[in-house]
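ARCHIVE CARD
SHELF: 3
SLOT: left
DATA:
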Amino acid sequence: MANSKELVIKVLLFDIWREKVANLIYSTQTVDALALSTEEGRAWPR
């Protein structure tokens, strides 16, 4: 019983970790996109 319980905990932890990594990657891409668009905005005078 302890082994299957451990497995469930590991799967849950991995799931949480994977979600955090995905969020981190997504937010980094968003920041990069924003930085790029503001740089383009500065390069092109309105």
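SLOT: right
DATA:
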Amino acid sequence: MIIILIIVLFSIWGMMWFWWRWHWQDGLFVTVTFSTKRIFQGEKLVLTQHIYNHKRLPLHFVQVMLPVPRTFRLVVGQGDGDYLGNLNQVYSLNGYENRERTLNVQMAKRGIYTLSEIELESRELVTGQVQQHKYPIQQEIIVYPHWLDVNPIQQHWESSLGETLTRFSLFEDPLLFRGVREMQPQDALKQVNWKKTATTGTFYVNQYEPVSQRQLTLVLALPDEASWRTEKYAEATISLFATIAHECLAAGWQLKVLSNACNRQGEPFMMTQLTSMAVVLDACAAIDLEQTTNSESLFTNLLASSEQHVVVCASAAARQLPFLPQLQAALGDQLLWLNMVDHFRADTTTLATAVKEVLLP
């Protein structure tokens, strides 16, 4: 009798084990969401994991493993985050139970990060046998470069280009009508508003809203060779470029961008007319340092063009200074060259007047 009972118990356990092995993931739903999809380097976001066991079978051990890059830092408390490998969470779920957890994550580096899958791991209660299952997910986080302090940059800006960069060249926009005024000696006859002139007997001319027609060329010059030695200079140069672009757009400048930077697909980062800061930040986030091209062609094209106001963002790790004398001869005081350095030179007399140094953050 005892033997029959043992056989029956083992048969029941075997059927339960067999059923668990092939069906434990049935009705198990996992979602991963982020509080924001766009964030600046160094800022924190909230990652939310939601798991639902939509069946009667309880799961005493479920581990949710989310593979993340090293730039995802788990934050505990109020300090900065630490890299802990995969963001693993362990759950024990009853039948038809919902669980949700939130994690604070700090984004440590600029870039575009795609999370494509999440892995679940469950263990059988008696034998401890492990079963794994992968779920596809589609989550993309865009991390923008952090802003630099504008005060030291502003000092270089004012001392270098001076009145050339602060002068507004204002023209009237014929599509923005503002009103009429009495005619003055310098007004052209084609400006006369004949209807108003006929009703009043006095010459009146049309007035239009002014529009600024200032254009500035921003050059992002990254080190030709990407390595761990030059990475900090390249990242700081991208932050410098984004900060200057933000200030220029806020001041009403029309920007043209030239660079030897490329995205992951090898597409160059160049824009003939830039008016949106969102476009700048997305492009900066997409830059892949491994795809950087040689800067010689960049400066050759710059010298061959007829640019008037040029700001070059470079670094001490980049070897583009041989092009500086030619640029300075062609542009004169309309050139500003900002170099990211880790320390200021003791002797600044050897620097060209157009070169200004900015300390790494």
